[in-house]
From TrEMBL:
Residues 20-109 form the DUF3817 domain. Its main location: membrane. Keywords: Cell membrane, Membrane, Transmembrane, Transmembrane helix. It holds the Pfam family DUF3817. The keyword Disulfide bond does not apply. It comes from the Bacteria. GO terms for cellular component: plasma membrane. It is found in: Cell membrane. The keyword NADP does not apply. The lineage of its organism: Bacteria, Bacillati, Actinomycetota, Actinomycetes, Mycobacteriales. This is DUF3817 domain-containing protein. It is a multi-pass membrane protein. PANTHER family: MEMBRANE PROTEIN (PTHR40077:SF2), MEMBRANE PROTEIN-RELATED (PTHR40077).
């Protein structure tokens, strides 16, 4: 006896796919900005480089803006994918741990794609 998965309405699929794409982009941007920020902080405070280029002083602000966008996009995806609060909180926390946003993005992409049959 085989069970067929429930059919997802095409408009809902599209809404989830759009939210997932925006979330993925924001996760990658946030992850790259965080790695840049960590590198700058290591150079300035760990290695003692006092003459950091002017553009490098803006990395923290850029990461802050990217992280806010990441939080909003993960909230929107969480609402559309009907995540439990703990799932959203762990996803949100991934934006402040270096490299973790890349792994969580891949995991959430896989979960949401399977649940909403986005690959078919």
């Amino acid at each position: 006896m085989s069970t067929t998965p429930p059919r997802i309405h095409p408009q809902r699929k599209q809404r989830v796919r759009t939210a997932l794409t925006i979330f993925s982009i924001s996760a990658w941007v946030t992850g790259i900005c965080l790695l840049s920020l960590v590198g700058r902080m290591i150079a300035q405070y760990g290695l003692g480089y006092q003459h950091i280029p002017t553009w490098a002083t803006y990395i923290g602000a850029i990461h802050g803006i990217a992280f806010m966008f990441y939080l909003v996009s993960s909230l929107i995806l969480g609402i559309r994918a009907r995540w439990k609060p703990l799932t959203w909180l762990t996803t949100a926390a991934a934006g402040v741990v270096p490299f973790l946003s890349f792994f969580v993005e891949a995991n959430r992409r896989k979960e949401v794609s399977e649940k909403f049959q986005l690959n078919s």
